[in-house]
Amino acid sequence: MLTIRTYEQTDWDAISRIHDAARKIELQLAGLEKAFLPLEIAAKKEGLFEYPGLFIAEENGKVAGFLACTEEELAWLYIDPLKMRKGIGRKLTEHALKLFPGIYCVEALKGNEPARKLYESFGFALMGTETGQMPGNEDFTVEVYSLRRPQAL
What we know:
Largest sheet: 7 strands, mixed
Helix content: 25-40%
Distance between the termini: 34 Å
């Protein structure tokens, strides 16, 4: 059984493990393996705990993924690699959009087609790609898909 709930401090070890494993996959899809930073560093540099929405997907009592968002943006979505492609990211996204119906933007690393397809299934449309410095790890240049959800504007 899958439940979505608000983050608690006791979730830290689980989301760190999930982030670190899933982030490596995400970076590999984008050809940026060397840009990896563990959550212990990334959370501080990118202000993870400043997001008003920080949600946990829990399956049978175990953390399976997490999502962070603002009222306008989906910002973090990481799923345990052993649980990917089983609807957990979809459930987290549905939860965020229900609580924050004004969310209209999201970015995904270019090459991360699974994320792009998930967001497009929620009505986000590809507006193009953008190039810039990787947030939290500015030594790396990244290209991202920029997606917008017009019905939320």
